[in-house]
Structure formats: C-alpha cells, structure tokens
Request: fold
Amino acid sequence: MLEQQFGMTVDTRTCVGCAACVIACKTENRLAEGYVRNWITTQTRGRFPELVMTIRSERCNHCRSAACVRACPTGASHYAAGGTVQVTGSKCTGCKACMAACPYDARYVDEQSGTVDKCTFCNHRTSRGMATTACQEVCPTRSIVFGDLNDPDSEISHLLAQRDWYTLKPDAGTRPSHYFLK
Amino acid sequence: MERREFLKIGGAGAAGSVLLGGLGTDWFGSYGDEIKDPGSDGEKIVPSFCELCFWKCGILAHVRNGRVTKITGNPKHPLSRGRLCPRGAGGTGLLYDPDRLQQPLVRVGKRGQQKFEAVSWDTALDEVAEGFEKIRRQHGPEHLALFYHGFGANWMKHLFKAYGSPNISAPSYAQCRGPRDVGFDLTFGSGVGSPENTDMANTRCLVLIGNHLGENMHNTQVQDFSEAIRNRADLIVVDPRFSVAASKARYWLPIRPGSDLALLLAWAHVLVHEGGYDRETVNQHGYGFDAFREHLKSHTPEWAYPRTGIKPAVIRETAALMAGAAPRAIVHPGRHVTWYGDDTQRSRMIALVNALLGSWGRRGGFLVPSQVELADYPMPEIRKNGLQPADRPAASQYPLADTVLAQGLCNATIPGYHDYDLKGWMVYGSNLPTTLPDPRKTYEAIRKLDFLVTIDVLPAEICGWSDVVLPECTYLERCDDLHNPYYKEPYVAVRQKVVEPLHQTKPGWWIARELADRLGLEQFFPWKDSEEYAMERAHGAGLDCETLRRDGVATGVSPPTCVEDGLRPEFWTDSGKIEFYSNRLQQAGFDPMPVYTDHGDPPAGYFRLLFGRTPTHTFGRTTNNRLLSETFKGNEVWLNAETARLRGLKHGEQVYLQNQDGVRSSFSAPLKVTERIRPDAVFLVHGYGRKARELRFAFGRGIDSAELVTQAKVDPIMGGTGMNVNFVAILRAEDVEEVA
Reply:
C-alpha cells in the first residue's frame, strides 16, 4: 500500500466564505491576535449584472514540489509524514527565504517565536488518529474535506474522481495537495 | 497568554516537545517530525448553547487551565450538528474581550455625560430597586418598561410581570421579523418561527428575496442551504446586490429596490393565469381563491417589468422553475423584513405564492414543527392587573400586532403620545440607539426618563446614557433557562456554566432575583439558582437530568412534519383554510389581498441606503470582538462601479454618507467600488461606526447605518418600522474634513 498523501478539497460551489474555518483554526491552534493560517478569497468577474463570483477558503497548499522546502537553508521546511509540508521551529532561523519562495503567501513569521509558521493540516490532530482538521470540522457548508489522496476509497479521492477541480497557480510547478472543486 | 501559560503547560509535561523545540540547544539537530500540540483540547468539555446570535446552536466549550480555549459545535444538537458559524467559533472573543463591563456603575454628573463611578453590587441593586420603587409609588408599575434581546432576558421578563408592568418589548419584532410572521399567520394560520420551518435541505427550488443566506449565517439554515446546492436545487435570488447567495444562483434578479411585491404578484399571475399552480391544494384548502384570481388578472409580467426592472421572460421562466419543482419549492420568508412599511402585505404575498406552489406541510417546502413540552417551575401565580401597554395611542392602531412594539414604548416616553408616560426603562442586551429607527428620537426619550438601568456585557452606547449599568456575565459563565423551540426535530437544550464569571460580573437570573428580593417579589423567585430551576423543569418533563447535562441536549420524538410522512395539514386561520382573501384584514380596514405601492426612487445625487450582514458579525453585538474581526475589521460603502467612474470616486477612498434629512455619518468608511450592486443603491454592513469610546476596538470603525435611518415607514397592520426608505449622498472625506 502506498504511503499516505494528505490533501484537501474545498467545494467552491457551496463555500459561502463565512470564515468559520479561519476562526476555528485560530482557536484550535491558539494563534495570537493578528495571525491567521487560512483565509477567504473572493473573485468577481464580469460587469453588472452579468457576474460570476468564486469564493474559496485557502491555506498552505502542502505542495508535493514545494518551493519553500527548496528555498529553506536549514531544512526547517520539510516534507513530513503524510506528504505534508511542515516547519520545524527549532531549525527555523526566521530568514524568510521560504516566504519569498511560496507562490501562495501562505506563511508568516510568528513574532513571539521568531520562526515561520503556517497551516499544518492539523498534524497534531491527525497524528492522534483524528480524521478531520479544525477547519473541516467547523465548516457549516461541509465544503472542506481533508483526507488521504492515495486511498482510492477516501471521500477526497471520490470527490476528485467525480468532480472538476483545479489547483492554484499550476504554472508554478508546485503540485499542490490542495484542490478546489468547481 | 501567551508566554507564561506556554511555559506552564510545557512544565506540566503536556507539551514537552514544544518546550524543547523552543528552548533546546541542539539548534540544527534532528528531531524527526516535531508535532506541536497547541494545547487547545479541553481537559474539561462543557456542552451548552451559543448566544453570539439568537439561533442558539449547541456548542462544546473546551476548558484548559481554567480558560476556554476553543468552542466547537455539539454533534448531538439538532441546530449545530457538530458545526458552527464563525461567530459561534469566536465566542472566546466575547468572553475575553478586554473592554467588557467589569463592575456595576452608577452615573455621576448629568445623564449622557458618560461619567460613572464603580460601586458594589449592593449599592447598584439598591439604587435600581429604589428607582423602580419610586416609579411604582409615584406613578404605578406600568410606567416602567423593559426592552430586551437575547435568551437571558427570560429572567427580566419574569421580574417585570411580577412587578406588574405590561410594557415588555423586544425590537426583534417590529424592527425585524414581525411582519413575516403576521403575513404567514394571516395566510396559513401559523408563523414561520425561529428556527424557520423551511425544509431547504430537501427542496428542489429555493427563492430568496433580499435574504442573504451565507452572509446572514444562521448555522442550520446555511447548512441546509449548502445541502440544497449539493442537491442541485434551482436557486433564484432576488436582490439589488449580487450577494453570496446570488453568486450561487441559477437566476439573479437585480430588482429595483422596493418593488418585490410587484414581482410576487406577477409570479402569482403567471402561476394562476398561465398555469402551474397546485390546483389540488387550492381546491382542497384554499379560501377566497376566485377573488384572488380576479385580483391577479392585471398583474402581468408586462405590468411588473417597468416597476421591477425584471424582464417578463425572466419572470415567466422563474415562475415555471418554481412550478416544476412544486411542492418541493420554497419562496423563503426571510428574517429581517422591515423594509418599506408594507412588509406584512409583501410577506403575505410570499405566503400566497407558497400556497400556490402547495408547499406548506410538504417535504422540501414548509414543515410543521413540534416542541418538547416542559413543566413550569412551581411558584405562585402572578395575578393579572389589567394594565394596558403604552406602545399605541389608540387600541385601533396596528390592530394585528401580537406583541408590544418597541418603538411605541420609546414614543410613549415622550409626553403626549399615550394616556400615560413611561418614566423608567430597563434595557437588557439591546442597544436601542442602533436598533430603533431615528436615534435622535431615542435620545430625546432617554432625556425624559426618571430612571434608566442597563444590563449588558459590553459598554454599548445605551450604557453611557444610563443611571445604573449592571455588568452581566457572558453566556459561557452562567446557566440559563432551558431552550425548547418548535423544530422539525423537537429538543431541549441546556445552557451550562463553562467557567466562573470574570471580573465582578453576575448572571441575569441572580440580578433579577436580587431585585425581586428588594421589591418584595421574592415569592416569584423561589428557586435556589438557575441550574436548580432548569433541572426542576427538565425533571418535571420526565427528562433524565444527568444525560441532559452530559449531552447538552435531549431530543424528543417528532410527530409527522409533512404530508409525505402522514401529516394531515391544519390551518389555524378564521376559515380553517389557506386564506387567499383575508376577511380579518378587510374588517380591520386593510387590503384583503396584497396591493402594490411604489416606494419611489432616490432623488438626484442620492442612493437608497441598504444594509445587511457579514458572516462574522451579529450587527453591533459582535463588532468589538477582536477574534471575529480578524477577517472583517470594518464596513465599506458599496457603490456600483460605473456610477463611481461617472462621479470620479475611487475604490478605497474614505467617504461620509449624508441622508435626506441632513444627518451625516459620524465617521467615514472606505468606498468599495464594485460591480456587485445596482447603480441606485449603496450597501453597508450594519453594526459599525460605534460611538461608545469604551468599545476601544469598534469605536469609530466605519459608518453606522442606524444613525442614517432617520425615516421609517410604519406598517399600519402591525407596526413594523420599514427602514429601507432612506436616501444618502456620498461625500468625500477630504471635502468634509476640509470644511470642518
């Protein structure tokens, strides 16, 4: 059996951009005031009244070819269990090379620790065997699904097989594990 | 936090790796995967229900080292189903708000000077009791009024009934939901309630009229709304603004503001005269249909087009979509519906279109909910004293209002409105200057008062004008009464104390009982505390109190909610049928069937002021919540892009708004230049532009829509205050400030 490759889908058809995911992430991860690890993006195209709008809940894409991992001089940014991208705080010097490299602006320097931080795909939960991230758990529209992309029976695999999807900035060559369902 | 607690947790060994990671000397050594446990999981998890809005979702509050770390949805609670809206998840932002009222305050100096002295609870309560006693002795108990909002108000309502005042009112009726329930009641013999009885999850066609679900975040409704989208239900959204819901819709109808009733009449015309209505329902349950059919004759889509701006073909296509989906079709009744003063008739017309679709009592339409019955706590009966409320100058006014009108009590404080004047107010959790239309009038009334006491969690504007301010603890710091709403899955939920009250705050039940003791009304508060009160009621209903405490909720068995499950629909109208023609309205001197009135267009240089919500806020109640403000820090003035271009206004520039009466907003807000709104309207998220300086986060952020609502058209049927009748001009901040 293949190793786990965690990923996430956000259904842009149902996501209303309420930001429950942002608040739940903040309390789950006890982020200080001013810091968020996920956010809402809204794009409107067209002219009144012929309009199309896309709403997405976004976060670190946990890329399989991650620019941040390549850019990190100390090995703090690395591929971790489940194919996720993590930052080892004790190895991070706060040099911000990863932040410059990340095409998604998914990282920040935590002023208190002086190190870079970002979405962990709630590895403190999943490593304990929990099936959901905090953002998925709270989502009132059930738009967020986290799971193992290598498990053909997982909900996320089914969704990706059945639905049209896209990733952000595919031209960056980063191979995100974060998908957006059309 | 953060540092001290951080070390404490590490020292306790709960997160040793964190400590090692942070302070270890093996800087570039390899620890493998260092998984940081943020430590938000509770050592104790307390089920309760939320109060960040008024939907009352079940929550699980996680407590660690005496602090609430996070709040998640209770999977067992029918309204949350394990999920929450952002506000519910952000409840700790209220609990730990550094601007909370911390101790009782008594006014020093003149009212409105906002000068207070911190006093003991005894001193404050004595002062309130003395104020009440004086009014009772000099004028009579009816001269004291209670304004309230929120679940904790039950204790104050009980106190007022015992005290003997009939003047008890919540602005959530005449300033919000009232017309809708009256309109539906006149038609089906039943209102839609809260939670609304719509079965959106199973519908095939959903019509939203000015109802911005997804921005208005009542948890269960939005869950069901997303379910409707997943089920590929057809969505039709009528809104002058391209709302989030509109962006999900098959049809967005950017209607001319104020003309919704014309569209509804045209839809009904198409269904009746061009075909598609549910003949069986109408024949079996309808009353007065022939007159209604005749009434609709002239209301063609062609008639509606110049009024609404919606093309006849689109009116026909959308009507056909509804008819094709019926009876699994919903024209949603909405929630905040006090717009133009004919809101009862518009709501009634919504009910009538649903009647034509045969969706009442049907799966995917409107369900008939039930309630778990609870026993009253045994106590002496409060004898009725026959005193009449002061909210209406004559009994004939607003004849179908089924509750006391909040703006009427405000009016009755100014001499000359009613036979008797109100002399004192208690205001519980309702910031009247941003709630009632025309704050100038509210302040005028406040100046006339002998006595004003406010009970609140945060120092809202109304507190600054009070004689005594009593700081209540938040919903996370108290037990309250049980909650047993009408719902498709009937249940009882318990609000439990999660942590001890912070500062010197006290729960409402305690405040009410202390006042009762001082007013000689102690026999009406015979219980030990709210917990004993709630558990006695649960026990009386045959519920297992231990299970209720452990789960936070107990569900009952529902009788059939729809025809598909064996419901035999009953209509509690005068005729016992669905009333297409209303004798009650006709006898009261109103149109027995809805008639369209035009609400005009903005004068040159002005825009219609529309206001609404953003998902992270419950109007002004949450705008000081720093946690919730991470994603929405202040409001913006939405303006159509082409209009902005023609006027040379730029996205992001600061503007003031000034209304038709010359009232200018106290603060400015950035302009949001967008394609997402009609050229004749501007939109504001309401609850901003706070003027209370003690709300240190919210103070001065954005524009307060309420202060620009100096005009209201009052619904003659039930007294709802239509507030979308104000027009504003946009002033550049640089021009305004230059003059100043």
